[in-house]
Amino acid sequence: MTGVCPNQQIEAMIGRGEITASPEVIPAQIQPASLDLRLGTVAYRVRASFLSGEGRTVADRLAEFEMHRIDITDGAVLEKGCVYLVPLMESLALPTDTSAVANAKSSTGRLDLLTRAITDGGTEFDRVPAGYNGPLFAEICPRSFSVLVRPGMRLNQIRFRQGQAVLSDAELTALHNDSPLVDGPAVIQDGLGFSVDLQLPDTDLVGYRAKPHTGVIDLDRIGEYDPQEYWEEVRTTDGRIILDPGAFYILVSREAVHIPPMYAAEMAPYLAMVGEFRVHYAGFFDPGFGHAAAGGAGSRGVLEVRCHEAPFVLEHGQVVGRLVYEKMTEMPTQLYGAGIASNYQGQGLKLSKHFKAVG
Hints:
Elements: E1 3-4, H1 7-15, E2 19-21, E3 35-37, E4 42-46, H2 58-65, E5 66-71, E6 76-78, E7 83-93, E8 98-104, H3 106-109, E9 113-119, E10 127-128, E11 133-142, E12 147-149, E13 156-162, H4 169-178, E14 187-188, E15 192-195, E16 205-210, E17 217-218, E18 231-235, E19 240-243, E20 248-257, E21 263-268, E22 277-279, E23 284-285, E24 299-307, E25 312-315, E26 319-327
Parallel strand pairs: 12-17
Antiparallel strand pairs: 1-13, 2-7, 3-13, 4-5, 4-7, 6-12, 7-11, 8-10, 8-13, 9-11, 14-15, 15-26, 16-18, 16-20, 19-25, 20-24, 21-23, 21-26, 22-24
């Protein structure tokens, strides 16, 4: 079989010992096309972000870069602007035909919480080579808000692949013609392009910008924080905004996206040559996202945008990212939004689940 492994294959991998954990994996971690990863009991404050490198272990590099360690058993604050390394509860013993890719969960990305997986011998973030046997670690760098974390929290997720099953542009076009992937014309080039919506109906509110000096966010508190204490509203009446260097924004895609049940998608980083910004934190779109049978009917993609070196004018309808679609090895037995706790099915412009709903 070739493609992304669905939930029932992940369960089988756990049964075969290809995925192990202490304590054991719980059912709530298993998503339609990925596995949530849990924080362990200690966080290492490090001088800088690093990769272990070929032939080196993460423990080797920690000896070089560790500043101090923090027991997070009873909760601890990871401070904005600092870099931490946290051993995860899960370890892998992958078969030689199975690789993996990790990414931040949606709520993690919407908090501007840079979270990346690293491995022993790793030469890339968030990439686990076929046949890898060893521990997993999360590098965590809070960018906009300091956060309170505890063991067992799930900030990132991992997706398993057998071979490569990325759809070509021709295959993506055929899929769109058979089952529309967006609710308008499809821009297909190296994936499915999507654009920013700066003309939302009946409002001039088009997004949110993170405030620079805020309180701590406890990641276990859901729906409790007042958005006004953490976010500035971004409004426009002419369909454009100016992004400020270093600022973090929550915006929304113009297109309502659809992921058919036999496919998964990943948001790819956009090319810097089209503008001084980045749209990419929470990159996984599960089978059933926006799918009518799973309670969808098309769901907007929330865009986590950070501007870099120069102020940049972002205009309504500008293409800002692309989704790369992949085939599943087989149909998942659960879909995004269908009977599982999916926070963002049918979403529009929406902050993370930690904030009170904006009326």
